[in-house]
């Protein structure tokens, strides 16, 4: 009987990670339409933002090229990480499969995170399609320096951790109510706006910016992209990363807390 | 003793919602709770390698008990020990010891081909590739998985899905297998396959099996011992044969004849319940008269061409047990 080592843990989760991307690949037509959709979205994004900027060199201190590139990259990033893409958890709760999931040799949280990670990998072709389109239209800008690139990759990783955790948190509502459709829609639109996926924080009203910049959502897309475009320096840059990290830790703690309540519901109240 | 259950009780408590306007909204605020006792102080023991039938009508508390044995539910009171462990205390450790199939639920991955689910389980339980290949090969043969192993689970028939679930539960060779109504809603052929498989993993591999079912054929073919519960309490625990012997108050004998009118048959030991020209059915009380005596009486007095003694029907026995609903002291083997 295998003892629990790091290697058995990783092997255990590999299965879920694979299930994640295999589930994306299982729906070939969906994937194909998604790719076509992203080509169209990237093209329209470039066209619309260029029109918006005609006659302006800068808006809120941001140049046209940066604004257009931000919009394209945000669309690509969002397509891959899908801040509103939920784990299969609600479905498994509704189908009553969750009991069996709980008596697995890996925790339910890691099962779900691994699977969501796999789903993201499965959706990479979408992001790639948008990126290629943006490049072809000359709308993508590389970071100013290798350092900016590296730091923004770190920031993206923190953003992904943030998204995975919030998605799972929202999905866990399923333990309390079967009517999670409304909550999902609210989260979907809320996060699209608050993460900066639709409009960068630069262009938001002055009074709104400080509020949003403290929320966890901006850490998903706005933070890594603003670093990519070299708009964060020194203390601001460090502060951005620190806030991202802090949110990931807080969210993860919250996840454990909510999970413990959810387990209590299942094992004592019977789901 | 691989499983020990003592005084096991489970209460479910739900908000008590009185019907009426805003019932749904009020349920969020009401503090009144309604308690259902699903399992009510049951005790039993299961030996290593046993195949035990866990029977009872709908709502008797079978699934609730199985869920406590697997560690999915925490009991309200009482104790459960499975292979020396308390199942809900360390679910992840307990996981490798047990396999479970819940008939109406699947543990498989809906969107993926059946094979992928098996691979996920292989990884999850850190199976080495060679063992995995051998075992999957054997199971594939036993259950004829070949024709649908590459089909997505969502497109499988119930019988195919159930076979997939069985394999998923047994791949990592747990010592104990819990089956909660694995044959419900299946056709005869699928039921047969599943019974064959269960018999093989029990007899051939020494897996302890706890089988919940409504199907008395399952029980007659697979189980020597049963635990019968109703309203959360044990009605009977012991040998299937003993149960029949104890509960069968009448048995039927059917005689066929060609040379005389069967309607004229009579016997001091049995009552005619139906008769036509060629066939008569007689009923007797086995407590009063032993079957051989009845048979001898009939065959010595009439030129009978064929005679058959009907097996007591377990279905009837169980039905009778449920109606009387008084616990029977177990006679014979037991635990
Ligand atoms: N989660 C639950 N909450 C409240 N009552 C439940 C729950 N699960 C089962 N029950 C009740 O407990 C009793 C036993 O149910 P169950 O164990 O599913 O029976 P069986 O499997 O024998 O049909 C039933 O009365 C059922 O309504
Ligand atoms: Mg049941």
TrEMBL record, chain A:
InterPro entries, per database record: ABC-2_transporter-like (IPR010390)
Alphabetically ordered keywords of this record: Membrane, Transmembrane, Transmembrane helix
Domain of life, per lineage: Bacteria
Pfam (any one): ABC2_membrane_6
Membrane-spanning segments: 31-53, 65-86, 149-178, 185-205, 237-259
Protein known as: ABC-2 type transport system permease protein
Taxonomy of the source species: Bacteria, Bacillati, Actinomycetota, Actinomycetes, Propionibacteriales
Automatic annotation (TrEMBL), chain B:
A single GO cellular-component term on record: plasma membrane
Gene3D superfamilies: P-loop containing nucleotide triphosphate hydrolases (3.40.50.300)
InterPro entries linked: AAA+_ATPase, ABC_transporter-like_ATP-bd, ABC_transporter_ATP-binding, P-loop_NTPase
Topology in membrane: Peripheral membrane protein
Cellular localisation: Cell membrane
Lineage, top ranks: Bacteria, Bacillati, Actinomycetota, Actinomycetes, Propionibacteriales
Pfam families found in the cross-reference section: ABC_tran
Key words, A-Z: Antibiotic resistance, ATP-binding, Nucleotide-binding, Transport
Protein name, as recorded: ATP-binding cassette domain-containing protein
Record domain ABC transporter: where: 23-256
Subcellular location, principal: membrane
GO terms of molecular function: ATP binding; ATP hydrolysis activity
A single GO BP: response to antibiotic
């Amino acid at each position: 009987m295998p003892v629990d080592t790091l290697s058995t843990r990783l092997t255990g989760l590999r299965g879920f990670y694979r299930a994640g991307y295999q589930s994306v690949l299982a729906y070939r037509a969906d994937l194909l339409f998604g790719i076509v959709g992203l080509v169209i979205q990237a093209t329209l994004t470039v066209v619309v933002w260029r029109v918006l900027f005609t006659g302006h060199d800068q808006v809120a201190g941001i140049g046209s090229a940066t604004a257009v590139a931000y919009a394209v990259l945000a669309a690509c990033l969002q397509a891959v990480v899908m801040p509103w893409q939920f784990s299969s958890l609600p479905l498994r709760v509704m189908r009553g499969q969750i009991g069996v999931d709980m008596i697995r040799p890996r925790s339910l949280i890691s099962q779900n995170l691994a699977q969501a990670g796999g789903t993201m990998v499965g959706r990479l072709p979408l992001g790639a399609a948008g990126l290629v389109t943006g490049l072809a239209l000359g709308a993508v800008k590389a970071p100013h320096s290798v350092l900016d690139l590296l730091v923004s990759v770190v920031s993206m990783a923190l953003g992904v951790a943030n998204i995975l955790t919030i998605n799972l948190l929202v999905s866990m509502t399923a333990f309390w109510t079967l009517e999670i459709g409304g909550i999902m829609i609210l989260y979907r639109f809320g996060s699209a706006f608050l993460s900066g996926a639709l409009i960068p924080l630069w262009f938001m009203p002055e009074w709104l910016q400080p509020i949003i910049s403290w929320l966890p959502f901006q850490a998903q897309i706005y933070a890594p992209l603003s670093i990519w475009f070299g708009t964060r320096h020194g203390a601001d840059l460090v502060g951005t990363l620190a806030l991202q990290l802090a949110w990931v830790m807080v969210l993860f703690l919250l996840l454990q807390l909510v999970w413990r309540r959810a387990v209590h519901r299942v094992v004592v109240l019977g789901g | 003793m691989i499983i020990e259950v003592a005084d096991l009780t489970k209460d479910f408590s739900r908000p008590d919602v009185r019907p009426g306007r805003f019932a749904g909204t009020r349920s969020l605020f009401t503090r009144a709770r309604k308690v259902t006792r699903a399992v009510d102080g049951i005790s039993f023991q299961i030996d290593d390698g046993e195949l035990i039938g866990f029977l009872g009508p709908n709502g008797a508390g079978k699934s609730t008990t199985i869920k406590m044995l697997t560690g999915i539910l925490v009991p309200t009171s009482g104790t459960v020990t499975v292979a020396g462990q308390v199942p809900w205390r360390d679910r992840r450790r307990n996981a490798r010891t047990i396999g479970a199939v819940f008939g109406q639920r699947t543990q498989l991955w809906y969107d993926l081909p059946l094979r992928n689910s098996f691979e996920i389980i292989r990884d999850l339980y850190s199976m080495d590739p060679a063992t995995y290949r051998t075992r999957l090969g054997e199971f594939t043969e036993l259950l004829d998985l070949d024709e649908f192993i590459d089909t997505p689970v969502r497109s499988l028939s119930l019988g195919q899905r159930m076979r997939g679930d069985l394999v998923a539960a047994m791949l990592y060779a747990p010592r104990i297998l819990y089956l909660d109504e694995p044959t419900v809603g299946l056709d005869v052929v699928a039921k047969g396959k599943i019974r064959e498989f269960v018999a093989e993993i029990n007899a051939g591999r020494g897996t302890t099996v706890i089988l919940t079912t409504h199907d008395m054929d399952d029980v007659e073919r697979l189980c020597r011992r049963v635990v019968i519960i109703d309203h959360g309490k044990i009605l009977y625990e012991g040998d299937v044969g003993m149960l029949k012997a104890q509960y069968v108050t009448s048995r039927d004998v059917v005689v066929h004849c060609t040379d005389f009118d069967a309607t004229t048959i009579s016997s001091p030991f049995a009552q005619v319940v139906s008769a036509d020209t060629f066939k008569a059915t007689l009923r007797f009380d086995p407590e009063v008269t032993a079957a051989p005596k009845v048979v001898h009486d009939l065959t010595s007095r009439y030129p009978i061409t064929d005679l058959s003694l009907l097996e007591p029907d377990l279905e009837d026995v169980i039905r009778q047990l449920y109606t009387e609903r008084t616990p029977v002291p177990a006679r014979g083997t037991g635990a």
